[in-house]
Design goal:
462 residues; 20 strands; 2 domains; five-stranded antiparallel sheet; Rossmann fold
């Protein structure tokens, strides 16, 4: 689970800071930076898995376009990410090893520098990387979002007087030696691997694959697992071949195979999906998965109140999106962070409240003693209806709403002042709600009505 992020030098982000709840809603018009935040999370997720050039090449635009652009035609030469995480206590590796984390609250940061050589060719290097536990006394997020009686269940108690050392840390260069990034083995008396900062083109955390480094492995696996959905109704409608993977792609392919896996493992879950979809769309009474042995494929079929049956090929976009949310809700394999682009697309405004309820139910509730895993949903949206329904449905320990907008900022670049356009996100809060980040009094006066008015009246095309 992501609890806080800092970004600098990436696209429209300059000294950007934001905190996250189990359900985080980012509202705003087009070109306000909502998707840029998802791009930042997506890039960080790939950086901890592969080399920099590959990670950057998978993003929207050329690698050089990912660095903040200035009005004089130059750009930032460094990108910095820092993310605070809440992890599950248990970690497994691919070799059968298992371990328990001493700390489930970790902070990971990385700084990437772009270098343009004399031939104008761009290169990317890591110049700083750190991973460390968040001390209990410094952990404001926990005290805001998790009830006091539940904290120890999510964050193990640490023996008084013990202080966790960094699992990855950067030593600055000195005259006699280059800078070094250290990877430290947990509980091994300071045993470490050293990596000189000399054209490092891959994050050190990427080399961690075993539970000999449990905290580094847990942080890596958490960030790798972040999922980014941009559902395509045509992909949702497709049957799944027998050879399809039984988990959804980011566009919604393999929905039928996913439903078949859920049904095969526990047929009661398919009934639960049917009941939840029926509460959203009363005309649909059941959902089924047909095993088409001739076509060697799985096909989704729904039955309506009047007894008629339809396959997913003819279902509306809104119906398919609501069905997908129901599948995520009851899929035991759905864990971790789910970033969802505009879940309101194709859904009638009258169904927004029920959609909001699913999103809340899909997110971890820390006051629910039966919760065993972290599930977090981050959405961006244009819909004032969805924002209003989510905001009114639940307390802010479960959900936070943020308004995204572009603002002008004067920044000194070298010796000159530059006017740059940056993304600013402001929390829409109730009463005396607490935050881990400080905002100016005039900034926190934003109310829900201001937000709804902004979304309803702003010229989207502009």
């Amino acid at each position: 689970m992501i609890t806080k992020i800092k970004i600098d030098g990436f696209k429209t982000f300059s000294n950007f800071e934001m905190e996250f709840a189990p359900l985080t809603v980012i509202a705003g018009t087009n070109a306000s930076g909502k998707s840029n935040l998802f791009d930042a999370l997506r890039l960080l997720s790939r950086i901890v898995e592969m080399d920099l050039k590959t990670a950057f090449s998978e993003q929207r635009g050329d690698a050089s376009e990912l660095f903040t652009y200035y009005e004089n035609g130059t750009s930032a030469n460094e990108i910095f990410f820092e993310v605070e995480l809440l992890l599950n206590k248990n970690i497994k590796d691919k070799f059968g090893g298992e371990n328990n984390l001493k700390y489930t609250r970790l902070k990971y940061s990385i700084k990437v520098k772009q270098i343009i050589n004399e031939r104008g060719i761009q290169d990317l290097n890591i110049i700083e990387e750190n991973l460390s536990p968040i001390r209990h006394d410094d952990d404001k997020w926990i005290s805001i979002y998790i009830p006091k009686q539940e904290i120890e269940k999510w964050r193990p108690k640490v023996i008084t007087g013990k202080r966790g050392v960094a699992y990855i840390d950067t030593e600055e260069a000195e005259e006699s030696k280059p800078g070094i990034i250290n990877l430290r083995q947990d509980g091994k008396g300071g045993v470490k691997k050293e990596f000189p900062i000399n054209n490092i083109s891959q994050a050190i955390i990427t080399v961690v694959n075993s539970v000999d480094f449990p905290h580094a492995l847990a942080a890596k696996e958490e960030m790798k697992s972040w999922r980014f959905l941009h559902l395509n109704p045509e992909d949702l409608r497709k049957p799944s071949s027998y050879l399809s993977k039984d988990h959804l792609t980011y566009t919604g392919e393999n929905l039928a195979a996913t439903l078949h896996r859920i049904y095969s493992n526990d047929y009661h879950l398919l009934k639960s999906i049917s009941r939840r979809l029926n509460s959203l769309l009363p005309n649909i009474v059941s959902v089924n998965v047909i095993d088409d042995k001739i076509g060697k494929q799985f096909i989704i079929q729904v039955k309506t109140r009047d007894g008629r049956e339809f396959t997913s090929r003819v279902l509306s976009e809104g119906t398919l999106r609501l069905l997908t949310l129901c599948v995520f809700l009851y899929d035991p394999d759905q864990k971790g962070v789910l970033c969802f682009e505009e879940p309101e697309n194709g859904v009638h405004p009258a169904r927004m409240k029920l959609t909001a309820e699913i999103l809340i139910d899909l997110s971890t509730s820390f006051d629910n003693s039966n919760e065993q895993i972290h599930r977090q949903v981050i959405i961006n949206t244009h819909s004032p209806v969805l924002v209003g329904d989510i905001y009114l449905l639940n307390k802010e320990q479960i959900c936070r709403v943020w308004l995204s907008q572009m603002v002008s900022q004067i920044k000194t670049i070298g010796a000159k002042k530059q006017n740059i356009q940056i993304t600013k996100m402001l929390p829409v809060i109730k009463g005396n709600s607490q935050l881990t980040i400080k905002f100016e009094p005039n900034e926190i006066k934003m109310t829900l009505e201001n937000l709804k008015s902004y979304l309803e009246n702003k010229d989207f095309e502009e």
